[in-house]
Amino acid sequence: MGYWKSKVLPKIKKVFEKNTAKKAEAAEACNTFDQSKDEINKEFEEKKVDLQPKVLEIYEACSVEIKGLVKEPKEAGIKKSSVAIHKLLEELSKIEFPGSKTVTEASTKYGAGLVSGPIIFVLEKVSTFVPIEEVVKEDEPKKEEEQEQVTTKVEKEIVIEEDKIQEEQPTTSTTTIAPATEEPPKAAKVVEALEKTVKEVEQFYSTPATTAANKGSSSILKEKDRDKLLLNTPLHDSSQKEQIASKRMQELMRHFASIFRQITQHKWAWPFLEPVDVEGLNLLDYYEVIEKPMDFGTIKTKMEAKDGNGYKNVREIYADVRLVFKNAMKYNDEKDDVHVMAKTLLEKFEEKWLQLLPKVAEEEKKREEEEAKALLEMRITREVKYANMAKDTSTKLYEIDIQLRELKERVVQKCRRMSTEEKRKLGSALTRLSPEDISKALEIVAENNPSFQATAQEVDLDIDAQSEYTLWRLKVFVKEALKVQGNNASNNNVTNNNKDDNKKNNSKRRREICDALAKSTVKRTKKLSNL
Asked: Domain for residue 481, yes or no?
């Protein structure tokens, strides 16, 4: 019992006190963040346009779970996926996303669970860049109806005006196709969603970055190798790699700090410990000679900085230490004591730096390889996404094409037989079409008659040999074409003399069509007389 009171209980209390203090600090950090929200919002609005492509690229590289948290941030989800969330915050910090740097530091220090409020605030800002996905659900009972509605264009082409038919055949019982109704909202949404997807895929594959990347060496990766690479490198593994790289850099910083300490403790280092007292020493031309003043005190402060303004790597510190000595040697004559002291210390510093340089070069090479691999993984993730989108869209379009064919077959079955008189009038109307409209009419015939050559020099058009579907389409087309032709003739009374040659060619083409129709009419007359 005495051991429990003297040893165990104090440790338990210490743990609880530590957690309580940590929670209090985290709460204070959250309050401070809340007070700065107005300033963050202002910065966000200023950078919104520039941030959009960068944020979308980071978002697309996230897992499905993290994408869900971005759209609907929840405290429980943030705690569960704290490592992945921290990785996302680090990526946002790299692009200077407003507020992300402060939240990342708080997450590192206290854990994502204790600063969920600021994290949710940042995620909500990120969600404003995420496009809203339209999910279209089709009801099975209405599937056939929607298929017909999506393809109303085909039906519209064969619509028959009942009044006209009754005028031509007053005693014949006819069955006509009801005029197609307008597409309902659901069908319109299906079409709109497909168009949006197609445009998005086209835009991705037409961007210069994607085109250049596809031509690069990385594009030779086989699809199975890409999938394997993605499966073996999830988001949390990337976060762990970043932490490992950060530890390696900290170790290099520690080695360099030891070198820096040896140099600053040298007996000749005292002139360089503080900034040059330009006014006290009456150095009027100092800032004219020295563009960037530097001293050991400033370097030390920057090395110990925790607010993100410190050195990012060892080479930055190395450059500033050399700058201290170079400035002294540049401003002071070679025989001056300060010049000699600076030159001596620089030589000692370079000797020690050469001992550390192999490790620095090795770390830089690793960093470069890791960054290249991360970019490749991100690009492959996007490529896989858009490849799947293209595949799904192609499948949907193929299904719609099948539906159109089925609808076309049903429409053909519903078409009533055109009478001999109606065929005669149709043939007569075809001869009154303009050359352009005649070509279009021949194309309609060719669509359902592969052996018919609409562009041949001579055409033999047998109306009796055409399907009812083709005849009704021709009837609707001819009626609309003649109507437009009549309106144009009444509005345009001035002719162009430069089009005489075209008129001759068009007249020749029209005569050929008329001759073909006349032959067809003669054939029909002979058939009727034989009956």
From this structure: yes
CA dist., res. 156 & res. 151, Å (int): 9
Based on the fold, state whether residues 370 and 306 are members of the same structural domain.
Answer: yes
Q: Under a CB-based contact definition with an 8 Å cutoff, are residues 240 and 374 in contact?
A: no
Stretch among 22-26, 30-34, 144-148, 387-391 having the lowest mean pLDDT: 144-148
The pLDDT of residue 210 is above 90 = no
Tell me the C-alpha distance between 359 and 380, whole Å. Answer: 31
| Among 250, 243, 235, CA closest to 64 | 235
Average pLDDT, the chain: 76
Instruction: Extract the tokens encoding 81.
Output: 């996926």
Say what the pLDDT of residue 173 is.
Answer: 38
Residues 349 and 445 grouped into a single domain: no
Mean pLDDT value across residues 263-281: 93
Q: Are residues 249 and 364 in the same domain?
A: yes
Q: Is 147 in contact with 180 (CB distance < 8 Å)?
A: no
Distance CA 84, CA 238 (A): 9
For residue 59, give the nearest of 382, 392, 383, 390 by alpha carbon.
382
Same domain, 360 and 425: no
Structural domain tally of the chain?
A: 3
| pTM metric for this prediction | 0.36
Instruction: Give yes or no for a contact between 313 and 249, defined as CB atoms under 8 angstroms apart.
Output: yes
pLDDT at 187 (0 to 100): 65
DSSP 494: -
Is residue 87 in a domain?
A: yes
Alpha helix (H) residue ranges in 415-499: 420-430, 435-447, 468-491
Q: Residue 277: its pLDDT value, please?
A: 92
Pair (363, 461) in one structural domain? no
| Segment holding 231, helix H or strand E | helix 223-231
- Which residue segment(s) compose the domain that 440 sits in? 416-487
Cβ atoms within 10 Å, residue 346: 18
pLDDT of residue 285: 93
Residue 37 resides in a domain: yes
- Sequence-distant (≥ 6) Cβ neighbours of residue 12 within 8 angstroms: none
Output 502 or 162, whichever has higher pLDDT.
502
> CA-to-CA distance for 303 and 282, rounded, in angstroms?
30
The per-residue pLDDT for range 43-94, each reduced to its tens digit, is 888 888 888 888 888 988 888 889 888 888 888 888 888 888 888 898 998 9
What's 248-304 look like in SS3? HHHHHHHHHHHHHHHHHCCCCCHHHCCCCCCCCCCCCCHHHHCCCCCCHHHHHHHHC
> Is residue 21 domain-shared with residue 115, that is, in the same domain?
yes
Instruction: Say yes or no: 242 and 373 in one domain.
Output: yes
Whether residue 261 is found in the same domain as residue 332: yes
* 494 vs 104: which has the higher pLDDT: 104
Find the CATH number of the domain harbouring 270.
1.20.920.10
Does 514 fall in a domain? no
